[in-house]
Design goal:
Layout lengths: L1 H32 L5 E5 L6 E5 L5 E5 L2 H15 L1 H12 L3 H4 L4 H10 L1 H11 L2 H20 L6 H6 L9 H14 L3 H11 L5 H7 L14 H8 L8 H6 L17 E7 L10 E9 L7 E7 L5 E7 L8 E4 L2 E7 L5 E9 L2 E7 L2 E4 L1 E7 L7 E7 L38 E7 L8 H10 L3 H8 L7 E7 L9 E6 L3 E3 L11 E2 L7 E4 L7 E3 L5 E4 L22 H11 L6 H8 L7 H8 L7 H11 L11 H21 L1 H4 L5 H8 L20 H20 L8 H4 L1 E4 L8 H7 L1 E4 L11 E2 L9 E5 L1 E6 L5 E5 L15 H6 L4 E2 L8 E7 L3
Parallel strand pairs: 1-30, 3-6, 10-19
Antiparallel strand pairs: 2-3, 2-30, 4-5, 4-22, 5-26, 5-27, 6-7, 7-8, 8-9, 9-16, 10-11, 10-15, 11-12, 13-14, 16-17, 17-21, 18-20, 23-24, 25-26, 27-28, 28-29
Helix pairs in contact: 2-7, 3-9, 6-9, 14-15, 19-23, 20-23
């Protein structure tokens, strides 16, 4: 019997040796895959030595003798800390997601290749002035120097997804991510598409009630486009266009910025006359897709010399310069204007030659190019991209409008068995302001980083073209400078013709010259406020100034006014502000929309004890979305169920449950929506009233919550069901790896609180927050100080041994002081390579 014992011992020793070997290999990989951040490296491309000092939070503080060397070092740091993020985002912009994701990435690749992201990016490079391009080249050289200096294995994502080593970075790669930023922040074309698809079933009046202007402004469109579309025969016979509208949620999601609902930001600036120090304060928190790592990366650049500058703030890996920041003289911050800078055009095909389309001057040939999309696990897909005089034919790329045979997701629609499609004689083309020639946005960011006064900021914003942003700014008061504050809605804004009946709100006939743009607003025509008497300016994606068409810059996609109203309320409530009061405002979780909705909801007459308790708690509630309270969960579960009960029979479940239906819901309950009896469920024989739906939806919401949470009404809390989900792209899609790369933390807030935590798009987790402040910054121009927090670690590697948990600090509302000369945890000196 000795041999079985010896065999068991041998197997045990073998297994132990295997485990030890595996542990040693993992320890080696962990250390070897991390970049060198201490010591000295010799790299090609530098003019003079540069220091990169990383503090305990991983923020690089770059000390350089020239601007080009500082940007070289920024590119080097970006590539060291965010290599996977940069390479993955580059693949998205290039339309190469399918190479990693297989057929699941085809819709995104078709869409981005049709838009011509790379072609637009290359034109931006070609249009760049020589000095700005030289700085971009220095940044790109820094990225490539970091790639060349790596001696160990690549970050774990490359290994786990079997992704090849990154190719050298190019100027086009950087500007392509700039194009993606512009695309993600300009989404008014989606609203146009939604209105067009809804026109297949609803009247114009009904559509205006379904998609009202959040600012309360009357509709801009005067023509009855619904009737016109029917006369034109726009839709293919018996096509379920309604389902196309409900499937707008399936439009390509672009990863980096989290394309889709929930986008927004806050910023405000306070004049020195209303601060304790006598110098301006500026606050900014951009709301984008939550991810790990975050889309932003904090950094400090210090360029020595008389013409140098010292700047701190948020950068975007892949792009040079600080984008949201401050220097010793000025500070600036951004929110999205929600400007209408894209238009869809209905192009009519020539009946006897489908290679041509109709223009005001007759028939013209499509411009075409061929694309080949490589798809993991299957055959390549060939794509013919067509463009008209207005721009790319986007209907070729959107599965919502393609016939089933051309869709990568063959199969029937879950509701009607039909895929929506345009009639065969029409296509949709898009004109997009960001794609127009002559972009100079990178030069604008360079000017902001180097600005020494408010006048310099305004001069820089003249070059701001590809994205449209509410820019608030301030200068430090000193000899020769008054400490001005201001706001400009900056960016290239289309000027539409006075005689256009469509006014950019719905797809317009492309053969009618009246629907063409007449150019762009001049810089002097852009809305602005300088040194207002109240001593502060706040923006939060809501309508700030109402101007008549065609000088308007907005659309129907403005955010509801609640966040901006709350910020202004808190700013006005205090005579003098400081950094601490700015922090309290950024962290505020009171939703003013509750004041509108609760009186309407209180008309419910529940019969169960649990629903009665829930209603009683809500009636005593002030609308603060605390993570530890049950009321936010009860409120949003009720509203979600109510929206479904009101609109699901009309729109289908995907759209009915969406949070952006809240304005339409309030109008229905207030009796302001009269085009249709929305509360009556057309799928039943009885005639439902709004009061019945209020009661039934409350009862059902409370019942569902009790079943899903296993708790009674008073034991529930918002944070348990409302975690901030910081997804890893793409490893959050792999259940076995999700826990290693994704972070989830309970948070309060919602889409309408200053401290935003927007939700509603995650299958199976309807209250999980997916959009929020990727960073919060406060700049105090009394000195070089202020405070900041970020929603992820600086390093993108889960193996990095960081000393602090920035995610926990962010979720708990903790801030770090802005420091230009911190105690260095790691010190890397880059020396020019011998020539």
């Amino acid at each position: 019997m000795a041999w079985p014992r010896r065999l068991a011992i041998g197997l045990g020793l073998g297994a132990a040796l295997l485990l030890v070997t595996l542990a040693v290999a993992l320890l080696w990989y962990r250390q070897a895959s991390l970049p060198t951040q201490d010591g000295t490296l010799r790299v090609a491309g530098l003019q003079l030595p540069v220091e990169i000092l990383r503090d305990e939070a991983g923020v690089p503080h770059i000390l350089a003798a020239t601007e080009g060397d500082a940007l070289f070092a920024l590119g080097f740091a970006h590539a060291q800390d965010r290599l996977w993020q940069m390479d993955f985002n580059r693949r998205i912009a290039q339309g190469r997601l399918s190479e990693l994701a297989g057929p699941a990435g085809l819709d995104v690749d078709r869409y981005l290749r049709t838009l011509g992201v790379l072609q637009v990016a290359q034109r931006m490079v070609d249009d760049m002035d020589a000095e700005t391009r030289a700085q971009l080249q220095a940044y790109v050289a820094g990225i490539n120097a970091a790639l060349q200096s790596r001696t160990g294995p690549l970050p774990p994502e490359f290994l786990l997804t079997r992704t090849p080593a990154p190719a050298p970075w190019t100027e086009q790669d950087s500007m392509a991510w700039g194009v993606m930023m512009a695309l993600d922040l300009g989404q008014t074309w989606r609203d146009e598409l939604a209105r067009m698809l809804l026109a297949a079933r609803f009247t114009k009046a009904e559509i205006e009630e379904l998609r009202p202007d959040a600012s309360g402004a009357p509709p801009l469109v005067t023509v009855d486009y619904v009737d016109l579309y029917r006369v034109m025969g726009l839709f293919a016979p018996q096509t379920a266009l309604l389902d196309g509208a409900t499937r707008l949620a399936e439009l390509p999601s672009l990863g980096g910025f989290g394309l889709g609902g929930g986008l927004g930001s806050n910023n405000w600036v306070v004049a020195g006359g209303r601060t304790q120090s006598g110098q301006p304060l500026l606050a900014n928190d951009p709301h984008l897709g939550l991810a790990t790592p975050a889309v932003v990366y904090m950094a400090s650049l210090h360029v020595r010399g008389a013409q140098g500058f010292k700047v701190f703030g948020a950068t975007l890996p892949g792009l040079p310069y600080v984008l949201f920041g401050r220097n010793a003289h000025v500070a600036w911050g951004f929110t999205n204007v929600e400007a209408d800078a894209e238009d869809l055009y209905i192009e009519r095909l020539r009946p006897d030659d489908r290679t041509q389309y109709q223009t005001p001057d007759g028939w013209a040939a499509f411009a075409t190019r061929e694309e080949v999309i490589r798809v993991k696990g299957t055959d390549d897909v060939r794509l013919t991209v067509r463009a008209t005089r207005h721009g790319p034919v986007v209907s070729d790329a959107l599965s919502q409008l393609r016939p089933p045979a051309s869709s990568p997701r063959n199969g029937k629609d879950k509701t009607t068995g039909q895929r929506p499609q345009l009639a065969g004689q029409y296509v949709l083309a898009m004109r997009w302001a960001a794609a127009e020639p002559g972009d100079s946005t990178l030069r604008a960011f360079r000017g902001l980083n180097r600005a020494r006064s408010a006048a310099d900021v305004e001069a820089a914003l003249r070059d701001f073209t590809s994205i449209r942003q509410n820019v608030v700014f301030a200068e430090a008061a000193s000899a020769g400078r008054s400490g001005r504050i201001g706001w400009i809605a900056a960016g290239r804004m289309p000027l539409r013709k006075v005689d256009s009946a469509f006014r950019g709100q719905v797809p317009a006939p492309g053969w009618d010259a009246a629907n063409d743009w007449a150019g762009f607003l001049s810089f002097e025509q852009l809305p602005r406020i300088i040194d207002p008497p109240e001593g502060f300016i706040a923006t939060a994606n809501a309508k700030l100034i109402d101007r008549p068409y065609p000088l308007h810059v907005g659309s129907t996609t403005f955010a509801p006014p609640y966040r901006m109203q709350r910020i202004r309320e808190l700013l006005a409530a205090q005579d003098e502000h400081d950094v601490a009061s700015m922090q309290r405002i950024q962290l505020d979780q009171r939703n003013l929309s509750v004041q509108t909705y609760l009186p309407l909801l209180a008309r419910a007459q529940p019969s169960t004890n649990a629903a009665k308790i829930a209603l009683g708690r809500l009636q005593q509630w002030d609308g603060t979305m605390r993570a530890t309270a049950p009321e936010p969960l009860l409120y949003h579960a009720w509203l979600r169920e109510l929206r479904k009960r009101i609109f699901e029979d009309d729109l289908g479940a995907p759209l009915a449950a969406r949070g952006d239906m809240v304005i339409a819901t309030a109008a229905v309950l207030q009796g302001r929506s009269t085009a249709r009896d929305w509360c009556d469920d057309r799928s039943t024989r009885r005639r439902e009233s709004c009061e019945e739906l209020l009661t039934e939806s409350l009862e059902l919401a409370v019942k569902d919550l009790a079943e899903s949470t296993g708790k009674d009404v008073l034991s529930m809390n918002w944070g348990d069901q409302h975690p901030a989900v910081l997804e890893h792209r793409p490893l959050s899609n792999m259940p076995v790896l999700r826990g290693w790369f994704e972070r989830r933390v309970p948070v309060g807030g919602d889409a309408d609180t200053v401290n935003v935590a927007a939700f509603g798009r995650k299958p199976g987790a309807p209250f999980a927050a997916e959009h929020g402040p990727v960073m919060r910054v406060i700049y105090d121009l009394a000195g070089e100080g202020g405070a900041w927090t970020i929603s992820s670690a600086q390093s993108g590697s889960p193996l990095d041994d960081v000393d602090v948990d920035l995610v926990r600090e962010w979720a708990q509302g903790q801030y770090r002081a802005i420091e230009y000369a911190p105690k260095a945890r790691r010190q890397l000196v880059l020396q020019p390579a011998a020539r």
